[in-house]
Amino acid sequence: MTERNEEEENHDEDEKKNNEAFSSSFLSHLNLPEHILSDRVVRRTQARLIARKETVADAEADEIGLNEIAMKRITRGKTIKTKEKEKKECSRCENERNLISSLKRDLSQANAKSRRLSKMVSTRDEAIEDLKKRAVTLNREKAKLLCEDRIKAIEIGTKEVERKEQEKVLVIPKGLADADAAARETWLKLLRSEDASFVRFARAIRKRENEVAVKEKELCKRKESEALCREQLVKNEKELIRMKIKAERLESEARSGFEASSRPLREEIESVLLSEEKARTENERLKKELEALLEESAASKSSLEKRVADAETSAALALAKEAAKEKECRMLLDLVREMSNARIVLDRRTKSGSSEGDDNNDNNDSEEEEESMSALLLKRADAADVAIRDSTKTATFY
Length: 398
Prior knowledge:
The chain has helices at about 1-30, 35, 40-70, 75-170, 175-180, 180-190, 195-355, 360-395. It has a domain at about 1-120. Helix content is about 95%, strand content about 0%. Keywords: Coiled coil.
């Protein structure tokens, strides 16, 4: 069963690949342009082709199943198989016919659409070319008009400049230059005459006119500044009145606030003064106590110095006593050593005396020596005991 399932899966995959190849090859044989191939109609036809191919694959799978059944039921299955094959072939032919007819309709629609779009594009291109030609003509007309206007303006400007230069050279007054043409002509004739006095007169007039113009400008500036100063003065007076009112209001508020705020401050100041008086009395009392404590500390200091001196002397005596004790201990050690040595000698002599019992004189001499040695040892022991007692008494006293 597993092998059969694997074979069926492989067969389905092969059928899908064949369907895709068939659809792509079919569309490539149509030789359609790219914008039509990407259209919705072609995608729909491609889906139809894939559906038809899947129906064919299902039919073939059914045929395989029928063949397996026919191997078991040969007699009964042949008629059914032939009928189903005929039905499937008829349905396949009908599907192919319908598909081809639908593709032809789609192709005719796409061609009509492409023709319509090409006509629209051509009409738009013609309109764009007409607009370009019109823009070129309008630009030329505009340039011509601008040139004419500029030429007129240049002519007017040159005439005005010539007139101004002539007026400067011939010293024409402003009133004649702007108003009366006949008077201006007579003035020019007089200036062009050989008499130089009139030229000087005209120049003096022009100079006076220039001075008057300068004075008028200064007067206008001063009037403007005077008007500004008056406006500023009015503003300043208004501001001064407003500031006075504000100052009076603030002064009254400050007085009321000061009176309200000064009451707790006065009470605090009085309490602070009382606390200062108490602190002064307390400080005086503490000063007196400190003076008494200083006197006591000086007395205690002197007593401590005396005690320190006594302690130093006692320490020196203790050191001397310790040195004496060390000497006594050394003496005792020497005495013990001598006693041990004497004991050893006596023991030896006793041993030698036991071997030599004949010699009585020698025994008497040895006994006398022993008695003398024992007496010396006892004296030294008594002296050491006395010294130890004296040292212990002095140590307990200090």
